[in-house]
Amino acid sequence: MVKFFENKSFFPFKWDQVVHGFWHRYPNPESKHVLSEDILHREVIDSKLHSVRLFTKTNKLPKWGERFMNSNDVKIVEESIVDPKKKTFVTYTRNIGYTSVMDVTEKVIYKVNDENPNTTVAERSVWIESNVYGMSRAIQAFGLQRFKVNSAKAVKGFNYVLNTMYGTNTTSSSSMLIQQKQKLKDTLKQSNYKAGSLYVH
C-alpha cells in the first residue's frame, strides 16, 4: 500500500523569478540538513531545460530506524524540466538510499497562479511506500509526518532565498492574502449552506 499526500504552496514572486531562485535555494536558514548538492546532467531538449541533481541530506533517525539504517545521511535524486513556453517547472525527487525501508517520491509543478499572474503556485504530490513486514503502515505514517514538517521548512527557506534575491513582494503578498481570505469565506458560506440544507427537509 502507498500513502499519498498533496498540497499547494504560494510564492509572492513571478514564475521566472521562482525558477531562477530555485537553483539558488541552498544554503538558507532552513536547509542545515542539506549537506551537498551536485549537478549530474543538464541539457536542452526541444527548448526545455532538463536537469538531474544529486543531494546528500541528513535527518535525525527515530529509535526504530536505527534497526534498519546505520547512518542518517541519505542520497536524493532530483530530476526537473523547465518549459519556458508553457511556463511550467516540474521536479521529481526520490531517495536512492534505504529504499528497502521507505521509498519517497515527490512531484512538484511550479506554474503561474491563474488568480494573480505576478505570483507562482507550487502543486505538490508525494508517494510514500514501505515494504517492511509488520511495520509498513507505521513507517509510512512516520514518513508522511516528517515530509509535512520538512516541506513546510523547504517553502519557508525558499521564500527566504527569493526575498533575499528580489526583495519582499508586499503587493503580491497582500493580494494573495486577500485571495486566500476570500476563498475561506466562500468555503464557509458553502459549508453553512450545505449544513443548513440538511434541515430543510
Condensed summary:
By secondary structure, this protein is of the alpha+beta class.
Can you put this structure into words, describing what you see?
The chain is α+β, with helices and mostly antiparallel strands and 201 residues long. 33% of the residues lie in helices and 36% in strands. It has 3 helices and 7 strands; from the N terminus they run βαββββββαα. It has helices spanning 15-22, 136-166, 170-197, and strands at 2-11, 34-45, 48-58, 73-83, 88-95, 103-112, 120-129. The protein has a 7-stranded antiparallel β-sheet. β2 (34-45) and β3 (48-58) form a beta hairpin. α1 packs across α2. The protein is globular, with a radius of gyration of 20 Å.
Provide the structure class: alpha+beta
Low-confidence stretches: 170-175, 193-201
The percent of residues in helical segments reads: 25-40%
Give the oligomeric state of the chains in this entry, treating copies of one chain as homo and distinct chains as hetero: single chain
Strands ordered across the widest β-sheet: 1-7-6-5-4-3-2
Radius of gyration: 20 Å
Number of strands: 7
C-alpha termini separation: 41 Å
Shape designation: globular
Contiguous helical run count: 3
Percent of sequence in beta strands: 35-45%
